């Protein structure tokens, strides 16, 4: 029974982390005047690196908060 509870908590924390990452991306996209989605569709490597760095930064923060 304890294994199922831990599995459920892991699933919920994972889902929470994903939701926070998406929310962080949306906030970042609204704050910065550039249209990241359009630039990513044009294969703009510089924008991809910025977005990747932002997502990694949010992931580190979320992992520390959840832990």
From TrEMBL:
It is found in: Cell membrane. The keyword Membrane applies. It holds the Pfam family DUF350. Its main location: membrane. It comes from the Bacteria. One of its GO terms (cellular component) is plasma membrane. Keywords: Cell membrane, Membrane, Transmembrane, Transmembrane helix. Belongs to the UPF0719 family. This is DUF350 domain-containing protein.
């Amino acid at each position: 029974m304890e294994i199922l509870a831990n599995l459920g908590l892991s699933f919920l924390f994972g889902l929470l982390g994903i939701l926070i990452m998406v929310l962080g991306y949306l906030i970042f996209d609204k704050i910065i005047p550039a249209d990241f989605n359009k630039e990513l569709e044009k294969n703009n490597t510089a924008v991809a690196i910025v977005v990747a760095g932002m997502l990694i930064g949010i992931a580190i923060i979320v992992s520390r908060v959840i832990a």
